[in-house]
Amino acid sequence: MSFLIRTLCAVFALALSAPATAQLNTAEQRMIQTVDAEQQRTVTMLERWVNQNSGTMNFPGVKAVGEMLRAELAPLGFKVEWIDIRAANRAGHIVARHKGNGRGMRLLLIGHLDTVFEPDSPFQRWTREGDLGHGPGAVDNKGGMAVIIAALRAMKAARTLNKADITVFLTGDEEDAGPLEITRRDLVAAGKWADVALDFEGLAQLDGRDMGSVARRSSDEWTLVVAARSGHSSGILGPTAGAGAIYEAARIIDAFRREVPEDKLTFNVGLIGGGTTAALAKDNLSITATGKTNVIAGAAIARGDLRAISAEQIARAQAKMRSIVAQSLPGARAEITFAPDGYPPMAPTEGNRALLRRLNEVNRDLGLPEMAELDPVRRGAADISFVARDVDGLAGLGPGGSGSHSPRERVDIPSISLQAKRAAILMSRLARARRRR
User: Is 409 exposed, middle or buried (0-12, 13-18, 19+ CB in 10 A)?
Assistant: First the structure.
């Protein structure tokens, strides 16, 4: 009897330490099986996309990738449209719409066709190193689009796609956006239609753990222009000559560093120049300056960015920066302007956190660890932010990897199937959940 008791206790202890039993229905199990069975198809598809250059300004290349996505989406029952935006000096977007026969939440899936690597980049081709795929856009964002297709194909096989109202919006200029009032107009409209937005940028990972992204910060640009009295350097900082433009620019920028910081806010000075003369190029990427060591600088220019977690934080930071600029040193005057068309923030709302809780229900049912909330300081701006004011959203549903925006870009191939399973189950559950509006 004592042996039986010890055996039962051991079994009970083992059960307590084991992962929770997956609570997956038949359709969800079918989705998992489909993703696994089609993993090689998915990787081959991704390789083909990566080998087609689609740098933002390579308009034919961006459209060619768009047509590859059309060929995947149309057989799944999506009505696919190419939105031409060459009038805004960008290629265009792919928008695919699937009308379901249910009354669940309307889903907006967001990714992008373009990469940072233009045709003149030496980084052009896919190579594989074990479980790593190396290539331009392998993670950002062709890997994310591969997750979308793998998940939708799994839903189709399990017949959960039948009831789903889904719009897939793949922008063609995420890495170098054109005039936003034109290039993001249709995306904003899609956000007003949707109940949920899901962003398939890369999966965030921290200390080996997958993280959930419920917020992304803004991306705004500012330009500081300083003018001052020029003259002989012997008079610098004197009552007649004043401080000159470079001292004034230095005062302002150092005051930004000391007085503007707050939690989740960052601001960078990316370009600066000054001298007797200073002129900013039309593309805002260079400054031409002239000067001599014995002449007080008459002009200075600086440019940078500002990233914030909310519209209120942006307003506070801009007000502080304007106040600092207004306190000019003698003999100098300065002006700061903020670009009117930056990327807005995606604030960490309760609705977004509710979506992460839904994703963690999927994780539990898959026997996976829950995903903690990622600090948005660890992520850049993204297209989901343009719909964040109108709809709850979740970011980072693409694959894991490293080296984005560099020739070291690599995608973790097993994470493609993992993210596709998470996404397929999450979307299927959302598609049968009651709409809130």
Answer: buried
The residue range of the domain holding 426 is 20-216+346-431
How far apart CA 45 and CA 33 sit, in angstroms, is: 19
Average pLDDT value over all residues in the chain: 93
CATH number of 315's domain: 3.30.70.360
Strand-pairing partners, residue 271, are: 303
Map the chain to HEC letters: CHHHHHHHHHHHHHHHHCCCCCCCCHHHHHHHHHHHHCHHHHHHHHHHHHCCCCECCCHHHHHHHHHHHHHHHHHHCCEEEEEECHHHCCCEEEEEEECCCCCECCEEEEEECCECCCCCCCCCCCEEECCEEECCCCCCCHHHHHHHHHHHHHHHHHCCHHHCCEEEEEECCCCCCCCHHHHCHHHHHHHHHCCEEEECCCCEEECCEEEEECCECCEEEEEEEEEECCCEHHHCCECCCECHHHHHHHHHHHHHHHHCCCCCCEEEEEEEEEECEEEECCCCCCEEEECCCCECCCEEEEEEEEECCCHHHHHHHHHHHHHHHCCCCCCEEEEEEECCCCECCECCCHHHHHHHHHHHHHHHHCCCCCCEECCHHHCCCCHHHHHCCCCEEEECCCCCEECCCCCCCEEEHHHHHHHHHHHHHHHHHHHCCECCC
Number of domains composing the chain? 2
11 is a domain residue: no
Which residues of the chain register pLDDT less than 50?
Answer: 1-21
408, 413, 415, 417 alpha-carbon torsion, rounded to 10°: 150
Residues 66 and 174 in one domain: yes
CATH number, domain containing residue 151: 3.40.630.10
Rounded to two decimals, the pTM is 0.88
Structural Rg of the chain based on CA atoms: 26
